[in-house]
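Handout, page 2. Input:
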Amino acid sequence: MIALMGSREIRTGLGEPRSSVTETDLSMMRRALLAAEGAAERGEVPVGAVVARRGEILAVASNEREATGDPTAHAELLAIREAAKTLGGWRLTGCTLYATLEPCPMCAGAAHAARLSRLVYAAPDPKAGYAGTLHNTPADDRLNHTLAVEGGLLEAEAARMLRDFFKNRREKLRKTPKTPS
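Output:
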């Protein structure tokens, strides 16, 4: 368990300093980035997630789709499930989900369904982001619950990890000999 509290103005990578980002937010996102790094080492897309409440980590997860063959084994979903187990119930009110990549439709929906209070993500996802890029499920007031969203925290680090992962994957594919048909 990590318990860090305190707030000060922090540059998030989006240019303007934002006072709503805390030292706890930075610590939790760094932990999510470590989880993402572990995923990359296992050949998984490097996405990590942490669910925390008042500075206490309830769950840490990373993508496990390749290892499990489960298309729903996204880091965010796994972290939400584990946090619910830790707390003994599905309502994660008062909790924050930290994710290294903007959640997809499924994960943004899970954050909504779990009644999380807040979502903080690092890198936006222009192809699948449902927390402000393609759609904004967490802020959709047609739903019965909304949650606060902060994007761009440690964005450069998360984006670099993703970029390097996919660059290495493409290089490996180029070097793999093609079998004659």
